[in-house]
Design goal:
Blueprint lengths: L1 H10 L1 H33 L4 H15 L3 H11 L9 H26 L3 H9 L4 H31 L11 H8 L6 H36 L1
Helix pairs in contact: 2-5, 2-8, 3-5, 4-5, 5-7, 6-7, 7-9, 8-9
Length: 222
């Protein structure tokens, strides 16, 4: 019986590879958009504008304090009531980008605030504008603090992408649920699902560890 299930699973591999591609596509686009939005919001969160900081803080707390599945359902099922109807794929990308941006915003803000105040004062005394300070002084130093947890957040983003299968996105998890109907050996099917996610995340995990060690060495030398 196990041999039969294994053969059925092998025949389903092309379907699983399509699921891998969909997971990579959803996660990759969300990673790009989430990083851009997160960096912008993180920079604004450290600005002197109290109102902007308050609005971004409320948004971050709201997204981080509510279940991601609920956020996906709101975008896919509730927004159509207001005339905003989205297909499953763009809804998934928007939801994941929003989630990633909220966490990346805090990572970036924390990295910027970790730069010693004396660096800002020296840059101001040198006559640099706020933009020049950010570009040439603050961000280059902040990146040593930002990069390791940022890559770690990318790993979490890939894993969180499994939730979008609930709205019909045919990712790895969705393929697993469809395959288990043909191969009723759940451990075998979802063991493969887990291995596929691991294959995507493992390079990012290694990159995060490498960056953490690298940045630690650089900071020690400085």
């Amino acid at each position: 019986m196990w041999g039969f299930y294994f053969n059925e699973l092998v025949h389903s591999l092309p379907f699983f590879l399509k699921g891998v591609w969909m997971t990579v596509a959803v996660s990759g686009l969300s990673l790009i958009f989430g990083t851009i939005i997160g960096f912008i919001c993180g920079i604004l969160r450290t600005s002197g504008n109290t109102f902007v900081k308050l609005i971004i803080g409320i948004w971050v707390d709201l997204i981080r304090g509510t279940p991601f599945l609920v956020q996906v359902f709101i975008i896919f099922f509730i927004l159509p009531s207001f005339g905003i109807e989205l297909e499953a794929f763009p809804a998934a990308v928007i939801a994941l980008s929003n989630l990633a941006a909220s966490f990346i915003c805090e990572i970036v803000a924390g990295g910027i605030l970790a730069v010693p105040t004396g660096q800002r004062e020296a840059a101001t005394a040198s006559g640099l504008s706020g933009y020049q300070q950010l570009r040439h002084i603050i961000l280059p130093q902040a990146m040593r603090t930002i990069l390791p947890p940022l890559v770690g957040q990318y790993v979490l983003l890939v894993k969180d992408s499994s939730v979008v299968s609930a709205i019909g996105v045919v990712d790895i998890t969705r393929v697993g649920w469809l395959a288990v109907q043909r191969v009723p050996e759940g451990l075998m099917v979802f063991g493969l699902v887990g291995l596929l996610y691991f294959a995507i995340c493992y390079p990012l995990i290694n990159l995060s560890s490498f960056l953490e060690k690298r940045m630690t060495v650089v900071s020690t030398r400085l």
